[in-house]
Amino acid sequence: MSGCYEYNALTRREVLGRGVALGTASLLPAWMPRLAFGQAGTNRDTLIMLYLGGGIDGLTICVPHAESAYYDHRPTIAVPDPSRSSSLRATDLDGFFGLPPSLALLKETYDDGDLLFVHATGADRTHWTRSHFNAGMWMETGKTNDPSTGTGWIGRHLATTTAAPNSSIRAIGSIRGTIQALRGGPKSIPLPRPDRHRFLGQYPDKSEMVEWLATAYRDSQDPFREAALNSIDSVSVLSSIVFEPYVPSGGAVYPQNSEIGRSLQTTAAMLKAGVPLEAVAIHFDGWDTHDRQGSTDGYMHRRLTEVGQALLAFYQDMMSSNCTSWTLVGMSEFGRNVKENGSDGCDHGTGNAMFLMGNKVNGGQVIRDWPGLRSDQLFEGQDLRVTIDYRDILAEVVSKRLKNQNLGTVFPGYTPTFRNALAA
Amino acid sequence: MGTTVAAPKSSSRRELLAAATSAATLFSLVSRAEAEDTSAQSVTPEVRLLRRCTYAVKPSDLQDIQQLGFHGWLEWQLGMTDADNQVCESEVARLYPRVYMPFADLRILDDSRTSDEHFDATMYRSIHSERQLYERMVEFWFDHFNLDWYKCSAAPTLQFVNESIRPHALGTFPELLSATAHSGAMMAFLDNEGSRAGNPNENYARELMELHTMGVGGGYTEFDVKEVARCLTGWATGHKNQPNWREFAYHDMYHEDGVKHVLGHTIPAGGGQQDGEQVLQILATHPSTARYIAKKLVAWFMGAGNFATLENAVAQTYTATNGDIKSMLRVILRPGTLALSKPKFKRPFHLFAGILRLLGAQVTVFGTVRFPRLAEAGHEQFAWPLPDGYPDNPEHWSGHMLPRWNFAFDVMSRQIREVVVNWKPLIGSAEWPHEVADQINHVLYGGTMPQAEHDRLRAFLSRTGPNHRGAPVRKPSDARIEEAFALAMCAPSFQWY
């Protein structure tokens, strides 16, 4: 995060000056340590996990256009190969895989070496499941052989590293509830709307009320005492950040009226303002395309277009602000059936694609040990086979970019094989 | 204790209470409860039962159970019908006419208003209905068979609640299951309406076993999923411009004929719609279903913990009674059983409805309660996009405290235009800090506020503001009392039930 600070002044309110006039400083309880921006003091990247829940179709986000079997299995929903004359076709990446039209705008990032895909990846074959809920739980706990574990892989990473000094919030989740991957992480809270994170109501004694509340929780035995105190702390941290109006750097344009666009934009605003976030977990669901998935148009195309635009905007916004200390991981709970079903969609499957974005990514490649799509090559005769465990990729991120070598704790019972996806 | 605003009582309730013979006094009940500390499990069985079976325990609820006794109150709740609850239901019909509108009329109206009226009726019932346990069970079963109205539209979602969930919420599980399967909303939500012979859509078939009946790990295989999907081909919705548009319809032309094998049963060829009916029968009588339903019901009422013995007893009751829901509830809702349960964390809808119930707020339109407040708290209702329903798991909700506190802050400072709270009758003649604190404890906690929080609240009322610390005790201003009410609803123990 060290490169960002020249931009801090643009996005951070002067807490001790105008903050009073804006009615924010008076809300800071007297016992709370004063904020310290800009001295994160770590060499760790901020991890951004983009979880595309519902089981995103990896054969659409990274299209194996050189496999004729792909087109045999999918007469309706395949993305046409790059040799087609129509503009509605895949954009070639490496002669074998390609990007669908919805993600074609990321080709330049791929070529610049800041984006890569991993294919035929997923959960340990002995523990695979086509249940959303179990597959998702295991992905996020990062521990496939014991779904009862209460903590998530990012939570365990945070619990085995030291926070930056004066860090009030270490990790945030984008949904209106706790993201499983963050469970067990110190100072990790749901923060779906950082721009609206403040105490409401009209009271003459509001700051005293907030202090009463903080003291009531601090002195309690409440099981959620820490979560409550983190929520109160985070109000004062975020009150000093200007979320609106927000001007992205480098001419970046976030998609409007888009949940994923807003999530990545507020993330950029916080990181550029120097909030020492160590992890941002974003859930963007809606990929359970059993029905009317579409191909180069239709439902999935539209939703994936939002993702592509938001990713590109975030990348441009951050990079042109010289904010390069982040790594973004895109993943889902499982891939979808290689064969389309009778309702122009496809059912739950197994192997899938992941992607990594960031300055230290060894981009411009599709990492794979490709198992093939002929019927006799498919897992159980229907799914893309998993040949790279998803933990290989996540563990490499944790080790190289988050600088945490406690991989046995973050991914218990698993010895990862690094795939040269990232620079150390 | 001061007076409270009496809720309208149905005649049957008055008669029932008049006939009750319990001789114990209200005072003894409250004083036993006063020692309560949420982590220490010392509430009386009666208070625990009320907390588990209502959206919030009003002082009048304590009076009811005082007269009826634990079992009398439970049986009163289990025995009531809508006819016994006419004060509430006639208001629902008057205020939210779409809730009682025939589907043929409803389905052509705008979705957004239908969704609003459905939500408003749901919250109105949660606040005002005498059938509190019934409404809690409607919420439970809706989550169990969850739909997202953004996918399957508001009218079919309302019809699903009216015709599949509410008639069977205290009936039998096999009938409830069948009613949810024969619904247009479910066929749309889980994509079965697009399932075709030769290439079935597995979505509903999988969730039918994983979420609705046997549970993951219940013993079905991927082969069973595919076979059930074949059995259910043709279970869909009526075509546009047909009388049954958006309602359940079976289309034989989509049905995959041929023999099927489901969980060891052979389903012969030529069965048509009967294939699906047989699947429902097999699932409803499967031992895994008895265990899974028992486990979920126990978790709903008991919260976290290891209750294997109780789950077994409930599962046995399921099997012995063909899935009779009241019989299963009678096994769980016993004094000795509830004594083992830990407090549960209120989900946002529960918390919000409870606050309005306790304050006697005059609300009939809940527009800005729902959007943005409840939605930002993560519990818009009827809008959980996945088929597993809003989580009944405190870890999901625990970190997201601010929207909960903000609702209380907004309510007590009149920031929600639809919500009018007249708190003065609630505190009666109380005017000194300790009297006001006692009354807030009485109104919001039924006298069970933990001592430390109660002391802290009294101290807050004794001060007049941040610049008057240490000043002599004086009567708190109205504004100060409103602040104290808000804080009492934000306090740690108020988040639990």
Secondary structure elements and their pairing?
The complex is a heterodimer of chains A (424) and B (497).
Chain A (H helix, E strand, L loop, with lengths): L7 H4 L6 H4 L24 E6 L6 H4 L6 H6 L17 E2 L5 E2 L7 H5 L3 E8 L9 H10 L11 H7 L11 E3 L14 E3 L15 H13 L6 H14 L20 H14 L6 E5 L15 H21 L6 E6 L20 E7 L7 E2 L20 E2 H12 L5 H4 L14
Parallel strand pairs in A: 1-7, 1-8, 4-10, 4-11, 5-6, 5-7
Antiparallel strand pairs in A: 2-3, 4-9, 8-9
Helix pairs in contact in A: 8-9, 10-11
Chain B lengths: L10 H9 L6 H9 L10 H9 L5 H21 L6 H10 L7 H4 L4 H18 L3 H13 L4 H4 L1 H12 L7 H9 L2 H6 L13 H11 L8 H10 L3 E3 L10 E3 L9 E3 L2 E3 L6 H11 L2 H16 L5 H13 L4 H8 L2 H4 L9 H12 L7 H10 L17 H5 L3 H11 L11 H4 L5 H13 L5 H12 L15 H13 L7
Antiparallel strand pairs in B: 1-2, 3-4
Characterise this structure.
The complex is a heterodimer of chains A (424) and B (497). Chain A has 424 residues and is of the alpha/beta class. Chain A has one domain. Helices cover 28% and strands 11% of the residues of chain A. Chain A contains 13 helices and 11 strands. In chain A, the strands form 2 sheets. In chain A, strands 1, 4, 5, 6, 7, 8, 9, 10 and 11 form a 9-stranded mixed sheet that branches. Chain A has a two-stranded antiparallel sheet with strand order 2-3. In chain A, helix 8 packs antiparallel against helix 9 and helix 10 packs parallel to helix 11. In chain A, 56% of the residues are buried. About 8% of the residues of chain A have low confidence. Chain B is mainly alpha-helical. Among the domains of chain B are: 73 residues, no CATH class; 52 residues; 72 residues, no CATH class. In chain B, the strands form 2 sheets. In chain B, strands 1-2 form a two-stranded antiparallel sheet. A two-stranded antiparallel sheet of chain B has the order 3-4. In chain B, strand 3 and strand 4 form a beta hairpin. In chain B, helix 13 crosses helix 14. The two termini of chain B are 23 Å apart. The N terminus of chain B is likely disordered. At the A-B interface, helix 6, strand 6, helix 8 and helix 9 of A face helix 13, helix 22, helix 23, helix 26 and helix 27 of B.
